[in-house]
Specification:
The protein is mainly alpha-helical. It has one domain. About 80% of the residues lie in helices and about 0% in strands. The chain contains eight helices and no strands. The protein has helices at about 5-15, 25-30, 35-65, 70-90, 110-115, 120-130, 135-155, 155-195. Helix 1 crosses helix 7 (about 135-155).
């Protein structure tokens, strides 16, 4: 795999996952629990997100086939969905998924693991990448992105202090802009391939 191939695999997943963009939500949702429980929530959310993502790589195309859908159909629908999510994040201040502070460990499953880390944008991206890369390449890149997200969330307090609220919002808006561009590309590829 060349560096160009790696970047064309890594970047769409990183932008779709947007760990820096959801960092403030993670801090808010885990702010009133002990560091030990926060670590447990973090580990559980990353584990669940990885499991769902890896299972979706081989099963996603089969679900499409069972429903009688073509890859192009999913690519256009997925592109539109990703575009809506990205534009919503650009236009509105709040993320699509937010919740009040909670001391419940299940906050790591919903919404941190699913759907904030591995949500519609990531699942659509995984299926689309499946037609350009091998399973192990996509799975490895997904796990690399989740490892980066784990490091970011592990150092959440320091990063939030370093970036500040404004910096965090700016990073999130930039990631959403890149994601919207990627969504348009997903749709364009299908439309230009129609003869």
């Amino acid at each position: 795999m060349t560096w160009t191939d790696f970047l064309s695999l890594f970047l769409p997943l990183f932008v779709a996952m947007d760990p820096l963009g959801i960092l403030p939500a993670f801090v808010q949702m885990t702010s009133n629990i002990t560091p030990k429980r926060r670590q447990k929530v973090l580990n559980g959310s990353i584990l669940l997100a990885g499991l769902v993502g890896i299972l979706f790589i081989p099963l996603g195309p089969r679900v499409l086939l069972a429903l009688g859908l073509k890859v192009g159909d999913f690519q256009i629908a997925g592109g539109l969905l990703v575009l809506v999510i990205a534009l919503r994040d650009i236009v509105w201040e709040e993320k699509m998924f937010s919740m009040e502070e909670s001391s419940d460990d299940s906050v790591g499953i919903v919404p941190i693991g699913i759907p904030l880390l591995v949500g519609p944008a990531v699942l659509a991206t995984l299926i689309l990448l499946r037609h350009r890369f091998f399973f192990w390449e996509i799975a490895g890149c997904l796990l690399l992105n989740l490892s980066i997200a784990w490091i970011i969330f592990k150092n959440a307090g320091y990063l939030m202090q370093l970036m500040g609220v404004t910096g965090s919002k700016a990073v999130s808006k930039l990631a959403s802009l890149l994601l919207s561009t990627y969504a348009v590309m997903m749709i364009r590829v299908v439309l230009t391939s129609i003869k």
